[in-house]
Amino acid sequence: MKRLYSTDAGFEQQFTRMVNDRRESDESVAQDVQEILREVRRDGDNTLRNLTMRFDKHALTDDPSSWRIGKDQCAAAYNDLASEAKTALNLAADRIRAYHEGQLPQDRDYRDDANVRLGARWSPVEAAGLYVPGGRAAYPSSLLMNAIPAKVAGVDRLVVATPTPKGEINALVLAAAHLCEIDEIWRIGGAQAIAALAYGTDSIDPVDVITGPGNAWVAEAKRQLYGVVGIDMVAGPSEILVISDNQSDPDWVAADLLSQAEHDPTSQSILITDDAEFAEMVEDAVDVLCAQLETRGVARKSWDDYGALVVVEDLVREAPALANRLAAEHVELMVADPDTMFADIRHAGSVFLGRHTPEAVGDYVAGPNHVLPTGRRARFASGLSVLDFMKRTSFIEMDEAGLREIGPAAATLAEIEGLPAHAASVKVRLK
Amino acid sequence: MKRLYSTDAGFEQQFTRMVNDRRESDESVAQDVQEILREVRRDGDNTLRNLTMRFDKHALTDDPSSWRIGKDQCAAAYNDLASEAKTALNLAADRIRAYHEGQLPQDRDYRDDANVRLGARWSPVEAAGLYVPGGRAAYPSSLLMNAIPAKVAGVDRLVVATPTPKGEINALVLAAAHLCEIDEIWRIGGAQAIAALAYGTDSIDPVDVITGPGNAWVAEAKRQLYGVVGIDMVAGPSEILVISDNQSDPDWVAADLLSQAEHDPTSQSILITDDAEFAEMVEDAVDVLCAQLETRGVARKSWDDYGALVVVEDLVREAPALANRLAAEHVELMVADPDTMFADIRHAGSVFLGRHTPEAVGDYVAGPNHVLPTGRRARFASGLSVLDFMKRTSFIEMDEAGLREIGPAAATLAEIEGLPAHAASVKVRLK
C-alpha cells in the first residue's frame, strides 16, 4: 500500500507513476489466441470438442445436453432459489431494466431549409453473444448487466457461452439466464467460445455482438475479432477511487475500498482525503475488516500491492484534477457537497454521490450498468448500454429541386477530389 | 462482373458467396505493425524520424516546420481556393455541422420511486487524432467528416496526422483543416503516426480517440491500439447497393454504381432489379460512362472484379431480404415507393431514398457522415458520429432511506456471489 502526500517533493512523480501503471497482464497470449481462432474458423465443432476436452475436461458428445443447457434446467435453477435471493435478483433485474429503457435512442426524420429529408433510424442487432466465465468470476449479476441491455435494445437472439469445467454448472447463472430469457446456453469457454460465436460453426449460428467479462484469452480473442463482430470495451482489473473528507465513518470507507480489492489481486483501491489522521483511521479499519473477510487473501494482496492513500491539502481544489488523471472506473464522493465536486470530474466510469451510496449498490441493484471502463479508459469509453446492441442507419431523400440546390456543390467537391463518376452522378440528374 | 438471377438453381449459393466475400487484404501486416508500435513506444520522436525518412522520404529535422504545418499555411491554402470550391466547402461544412449538432446526446438526472437519484452525464474526450492519408485518398471531405463531429462534441484539441511524401503537401486538405479549426497538423503517416498519437512522444501529446481512413498498416495499427485509445470502426473497401425498378434512367444508375467503383479496385457496386432488360441497359450505360472517366482504370477493374447485377422476380418482396444479407455501406432505393421498402431494410450504413438522391450527395454535402460501416459491418456498427468523441459517466446518489430500501438486496446478491466486502459496505451503513 502506498502513501502519497501532495506536499511532498516527489508527489507529482509518484502520482504519475500510479496513473501510468496499467496492472494488466502482459502475457503474450496473442499468438495462442490467433491459432485458436484459425482452428475454430477452419474446423468449427471439431475444434470446440478438442479444446473443451483439453481446457475444461468436458466432453462435447452426440448428446445435445453435453453442448447446451436447456431452458427447463434454467427454470428449475430459478425455482430452486431461496426466496430472499429470488426477490433480490428480481429487484435487480427490474431496476436495471428501468434504467436501461431510458437509454433507448430517438430516431430522427426531418426536412431542412433546402427541403432535403434527413434522418437516422436505430435498430437492434439480430444476435448477441454473452460470455460468462466459469470459476470465481461466474456472477449472476454480470449476466443481468449484459443481457438486460440487449433485451431492452430488442435483440432477437441472446446466446450465452460459458465453460462448465468437469461438467460443473453454476446454478445461480442458470437462474439469472431464466430471468433474462436467454435463448441458448452453450457449454464452451475461452478464446474458442468467442471464435465460435463470431464465426459460427455447424452447431452454433454466428452472432453480431459479443460482450461479457473473461480472462486474458477471452479478452484477447474479443480484441482480435473486433470488426468481425462488435464487442464491448476491453476490460482490465476493477478500480475504486474514494474521495472523502474527515467527516465520513472510516469503517464505511474501508468497506468500500475492500469491496474492489476483494475482486482480484490486481484490483486497485485509492483514497484521496485532506486529513492524514483520517487516512490512518481508514488504514486501520481496512486492516480490521480485511481480517474478517472470507476473501481476505485476495483483498489483502490487492490492497498491499495496489492500494493507495493520497493526502492533499485542499480536497475541493486538488481532488477532482487527480481524479481526472486517474479516470477511475468507480469514483465515490463522500464529501459535504458532492454535486459541486462532481461538476469538476470529467473522466470517470460511474460516480457515487454522498456518504450513503456505496459502490456495491451500483454493482447490483441501483440500475446503471456495472460494466464500466477500467484502466484509465473512462477518458474515452463509456459503460455498457443499450446502444452497444443497436446501430444507426442514416438516410437522405431529396427531390429534383433539392438536388438542384445542393447537388452542384457536391459535384464541385467531387471534381477537385478527382472523382468524376461522383460528379457525373449528380450532373446526369440535372441535365 | 457477375450476373445472378434469383430464379436460377445456383442463386442461393452464388449470393451467399458474394455475401461472404470480404474483399479485404489478408496481408500479414500485423507483425510489422506490432514492431512499429513497440519502437514508437520505446523511442518516440527518434523512431518517427527514421520511419518518416524511410517510408515518406521526408526529413523531420530541428526545423519545427518539418514536423508541423502551421495555421498560417492552412489559412493561406484556404484563401487561395477558387471561389466555387470555397463556397462548396463551406456549404458542406455548414450542412455537416447542422446534422451532427442534432446528434448531441441528452444528459439524464432523475429520482425514481425509491428516491434514488440516477443519471448519466455525457462529456467530450479531451483530444482527438484524425488520420488523413497521403496520395490518392487525401480527401478534404474526409477531414470535414471526421473533424466536424469532434468539434461539435466539444473536443478540446484536434490533431491531424498526415504523411507528406517527399515533403509534398495537399493544399485542399490544409484548406479544410483551416475551415475545421484543426489545432495541430503533424507531417507523419502510417502505423507510426497512429502509434505516436496513441502513446505520445516528446513532441506530440497523446490523444484519446483516433479516427480517419488509412491503408492496411494504418487500419491494423488502430486495431492493435484499440483499448489504449478509442477508434472508429475498422474500415474496408467502399460498397454501394442500388435497388432499382425499370423506371429509373439507366444512366443515373450507372453513374451511381461507378461512383463507388472509382474509389478503389476492391470497391463493390451491386444492382438489384426485377427486369433483366433493364439490367442490361444499365450494364451498357456503365460501359459507356466508364470509358469517359479519368478514373476508368480503377472503376473498370472494380466493376469487372466485384460488380454484380442481380435480377429478381419481385423487387418489393425479395430485394430487402437480400439487402439485409449484404448489409451494404450505401443502399439506394430507386423505386416508386422507397419509404415502404426502407421499412424492410434493417442492415445498412446509409440509405438514399428515391431517384433524385445519388449517393455522392451523401459523400459531400447532405449532412450525415460519410464514414460508414463496410464489409457487412452495418449488421452491428454505425456511421461516425458525435458520440464517437464523447463518453458517458453514470451516477447514483441515495440517502439513508433509499439505501435501506434497496441496499439489503445488494447485500444478499453480494453474499451469494461470495463477495463479503461488497455486502459489508451496505450493512455497515445500515447498522
TrEMBL record, chains A, B:
Transmembrane segments: none annotated. The active site is at 329 (proton acceptor), 330 (proton acceptor). InterPro entries: Ald_DH/histidinol_DH, Histidinol_DH_CS, Histidinol_DH_monofunct, Hstdl_DH. It comes from the Bacteria. GO terms for molecular function: histidinol dehydrogenase activity; NAD binding; zinc ion binding. Substrate binds at residues 238, 260, 263, 330, 363, 417, 422. It catalyses: L-histidinol + 2 NAD(+) + H2O = L-histidine + 2 NADH + 3 H(+). Zn(2+) binds at residues 260, 263, 363, 422. Its cofactor is Zn(2+). GO terms for biological process: L-histidine biosynthetic process. Gene3D superfamilies: 1.20.5.1300, Nitrogenase molybdenum iron protein domain. One of its GO terms (cellular component) is cytosol. Pathway: Amino-acid biosynthesis; L-histidine biosynthesis; L-histidine from 5-phospho-alpha-D-ribose 1-diphosphate: step 9/9. NAD(+) binds at residues 131, 192, 215. Keywords: Amino-acid biosynthesis, Histidine biosynthesis, Metal-binding, NAD, Oxidoreductase, Zinc. Its EC number is 1.1.1.23. Binds 1 zinc ion per subunit. CDD domains: Histidinol_dh. Belongs to the histidinol dehydrogenase family. Catalyzes the sequential NAD-dependent oxidations of L-histidinol to L-histidinaldehyde and then to L-histidine. This is Histidinol dehydrogenase. It comes from Aurantiacibacter marinus.
